[in-house]
TrEMBL record:
InterPro entries: Regulatory_RpfE (IPR016631). This is Regulatory protein, RpfE type. It comes from the Bacteria.
Length: 372
């Protein structure tokens, strides 16, 4: 029997009035069009858990990264995503990866595409690049001399994610790429005493890759060019608390935390039916609404949220009511905050929680959106 299911659902909260690229009309219109009966019942019967209430709109990490770091017992201010991502990217290696680099930490040097808009630069979602291993090898070879000259050791266990020793550019403040995706990157650029050194290397890499055969071929195929790199997630892979008996995800940070904590690890399931018979506690991350939310494609976002309700929340609600799951925790995220809710089978029988203002799940989401 599944004892506890944790569903982390990033960008599941509509924008709040006055958010970036949003006016006061958008949030209300989205809430009226949302049809999430299963999620609504789960939320209105649940016991609220931890919730972010800060007023900083420029935190450089994602809400789910901070929630995961807190659950794993890690630093939630400067979330060390890179060393755990590296652990996941090296999964199955023989022998397993060592810390190396003087037993320090790691930072992720991620190949990206930066789009030149009319009067600013915009970082594109890294997943849109879909870099092939042969392309990675050629691009890496082109900058090997630059890295050697700078004394930088690079580890390339995954085509889309490279790693360098943390601290090469001092105490650098950096931003998770998805946090900066679709925005003017000026305020999200790396900052710190040695940030100028980092930008110098970044510029040299950009110039080297400009006109590179890999990018010429990608452009001819109608694909985004790989025209820059983004440094982020630096830190050490300190001991992490176990998140769940089983962690099912394709997200490298969550996968790495699962490995570090001793969880069984598996791929991201498409729907709840694929994991309904899993025993023990289970954690997974449902991020299908992320890109639509970032792109403000609200028609697609509504479609993705409705699909989540049909393929996840509704069957989870049924399983909870039938006693096939003992408890469910939902971690909902918006632009800049998370909120946690836990519901048990006994909670479903507390019908009075669904009455009055407590039973208005749209109002609940609206409340979450106003701090998102």
């Amino acid at each position: 029997m599944m004892t506890h299911l944790t569903l982390i659902v990033p960008f599941s909260v509509p924008p709040g009035a006055g958010d970036d690229a949003s006016d006061d009309v958008v949030p209300g219109a989205l809430l009226r069009q949302l049809e999430l009966p299963a999620l609504g019942k789960l939320l209105t019967r649940a016991t609220p858990g931890p919730r972010e209430t800060h007023d900083d709109p420029y935190l450089r990490t994602l809400p789910q990264e901070r929630w995961l770091a807190g659950r794993a017992g890690l630093d939630t201010t400067r979330v060390p995503t890179a060393p755990f991502m590296r652990l996941a990217d090296h999964r199955g290696a023989t022998p397993p990866p060592t810390q190396a680099a003087g037993e320090g930490g790691w930072a992720c040097l991620q190949p990206v595409h930066i789009h030149a808009a009319r009067d600013h630069l915009v970082l594109m979602h890294p997943d849109q690049l879909d870099i092939r291993p042969d392309e990675t090898a050629a691009l890496h070879a082109a900058i090997a001399g630059l890295l050697d000259e700078a004394g930088i050791t690079i580890d390339t266990p995954h085509p889309a994610r490279w790693y360098i020793p943390d601290g090469m550019f001092g105490d650098l403040t950096a931003t998770t790429p998805v946090r900066a995706t679709g925005r003017n990157i000026d305020i999200w650029m790396q900052a710190g005493p040695k940030a100028r050194d980092w930008r110098r290397l970044q510029n040299e890499i950009q110039m080297t890759w400009h006109g590179h055969p890999v990018n010429e071929a990608r452009e001819a195929e109608g694909r985004l060019t790989v025209n820059s790199v983004w440094l982020h997630g630096g830190g050490r892979a300190n001991a992490a608390r176990k998140l769940a008996d089983t962690v099912l995800t394709d997200d490298p940070f969550l996968a790495g935390l699962g490995l570090a904590g001793g969880s069984r690890l598996g791929p991201q399931p498409a729907r709840f039916a694929d994991i309904a018979d899993t025993d023990g506690s289970v954690m997974t991350l449902l991020d299908s609404a992320t890109e639509a939310h970032i792109a403000a494609d609200w028609g697609l976002w509504l479609e993705r949220m409705h699909t989540l309700d049909a393929e996840w929340f509704a069957p989870v609600l049924d399983a909870l009511g039938e006693g096939r799951i003992q408890a469910v925790t939902l971690v909902l995220g918006g632009e800049n905050h998370f909120a946690e809710f836990t519901v048990t089978r006994a909670d479903l029988r507390k019908f009075w929680r669904g009455l009055g203002s407590r039973g208005d799940w749209r109002a609940l989401l609206s409340d979450l959106a106003m701090v998102s």
